[in-house]
Amino acid sequence: MTTAAASKTKGYIAEVDQFSAHNYHPLPVVLERGEGAWVWDVDGNRYLDMLSAYSALNQGHRHPAIIEAARKQLDTLTLTSRAFHNDQMGPFLRELCQATGFERALPMNTGAEAVETAIKMVRKWGYKVKGVEADKAEIIVCENNFHGRTTTIVGFSSEPQYRDGFGPFTPGFKEIPYGDSAALEKAITKNTVGFLVEPLQGEGGVVVPPAGFLARARAICTKHNVALIADEIQTGLGRTGKLFCYEWDSIRPDILIVGKALGGGVYPVSAAIADSEYMDVFHPGDHGSTFGGNPLAAAIARASLRVILDEDLPARSAKLGAWFMDRLRAIKSKHVEEVRGRGLMIGVVIKESSGVARPFCEALEHNGVLAKETHHQVIRFAPPLTITEEELEFALERATEVLGK
Ligand SMILES: *Cc1c(COP(=O)(O)O)cnc(C)c1O
Fold first, then answer.
1. I need a labelling partner for 276 at 20 to 30 A (CA). Which of 98, 225, 234, 379 fits?
2. pLDDT at 2 exceeding the cut of 90
3. Under DSSP, is residue 242 helix (H, G, I), strand (E, B) or coil?
């Protein structure tokens, strides 16, 4: 790296530091181009992207079919608002319902908005269908959860930093330990309307629940007429080796939340998905979004979904993920406590005696691999699902170098 080039990176970072809120602590790399599993920085260095925008890039950077769909739609119609219909939203929702096996879908933009949509839906269902007394609805959530950053959502986070200084919070949420089905059943009252859960916790540190947890939760929710709400924003659309992570437990949730990869790394697209029993509680004026279901989003999401299904990315994730995880476990390292995950959603837990995960991510960056720590001790490996075995070998070589020292 030349000095002039190095100052190019520094200049861009200084600009962000000066003009933005300091709400992130990114790795000091400034990217300008991406293709497949690879990205290039402003100094011409190439990196393997092992984060894929927290699983929003399951199809890889600039997948040709998604870019083409976006281009085509840019040339015809981009936004109507929901005041009018458009010719992309219907086909998008039909294809989304067919792929997931639900009756209806409500399109939003970001993940947090889709979570908020599910919260509103299940509360209203509680009052109108289940018969819960006005303003008494309770939703059960898990410790160590991550469902987004709105004030309502951070209000039921167990991460002190996510809440500190942002209260007062929305009432009506109860927390149980993740994976504890006995605690779930104990927490249920006549006012419980939903159980909101990540089938595998992503931001919480790639935490896999005990075997059968979701199946037991499904049975408990059914028994007590409580809606099981699966937040598959990160785990869904092939990431864990199934189209949806809940398939590992052979269950079906009542409400499914998707986002991230639904937009193919091109555009924010999310949705809350459910059968009409839940969805039909919404009437005109109850809920909405100016950009939700816009024709550009819908065209991009249709292509993004098609790529996942046509290229069978869930099967690819299962096969490559199992192999990659085995190879990671085989690295002789005094720093690694555990390697865990499902499919290509993998966490390498660093021993506390070796410090936090951040310096390992910085060392990986210097070696041409971009990964990001989550929850201090965990290096997350979640590459595009289109990644090849050869590209994963590249990551393994670098990981061996960094972790084997
Ligand atoms: C990323 C994420 C969200 C929030 O999505 P945004 O698009 O950032 O609002 C919610 N739930 C889970 C499980 C996530 O991983």
1. 234
2. no
3. coil
Pocket test for ligand 1, best of 52, 144, 147, 375 (most atoms within 8 A of CB): 147
Pick the CATH number of 7-49+312-403 from 2.60.40.10, 3.90.1150.10, 3.30.70.100, 3.40.50.10610: 3.90.1150.10
Q: Is the CB of 110 under 6 A from ligand 1?
A: yes
- The ligand 1 atom at the shortest distance from the C-alpha of residue 113 is 9
When pLDDT is cut at 50, 70 and 90, the band that residue 375 belongs to is confident
Mean pLDDT of 241-263: 98
Q: Is the CB of 112 within 6 Å of ligand 1?
A: yes
pLDDT value, residue 318: 98
> For the segment 112-126, what is each residue's pLDDT rounded down to a tens digit?
999 999 999 999 999
- Fold for the domain defined by 64-310: Aspartate Aminotransferase; domain 2 (3.40.640)
Verdict on whether the full-model pTM lies above 0.85? yes
Q: Is 111 in the pocket of ligand 1 (CB under 6 A)?
A: yes
304 and 261 in contact (C-beta within 8 Å)? yes
pLDDT at 7: 76
Cβ 371 under 6 angstroms from ligand 1: no
* Candidate list 41, 49, 102, 146, residue with the active-site label: 146
Q: Work out whether the CA dihedral 211, 217, 220, 223 comes out positive or negative.
A: negative
Count the neighbouring beta carbons within 10 Å of the beta carbon of residue 359. Answer: 13
The verdict on whether 146 is a catalytic residue reads: yes
Q: Is any atom of ligand 1 closer than 6 Å to the C-beta of 140?
A: no
Give the domain ranges of the chain: 7-49+312-403, 64-310
Q: ω before 268 within 30° of 0 (cis)?
A: no
Mutation test of ligand 1: which of 142, 260, 266, 291 has the most ligand atoms closer than 8 Å to its C-beta? Answer: 260
Q: Rounded to whole angstroms, how far apart are CA atoms 293 and 93?
A: 9
**CA dihedral sign, ordered 229, 231, 235, 237:** positive
Ligand 1 pocket member 148 (CB < 6 A)? yes
| Rounded Cα–Cα distance for residues 376 and 261 (Å) | 25
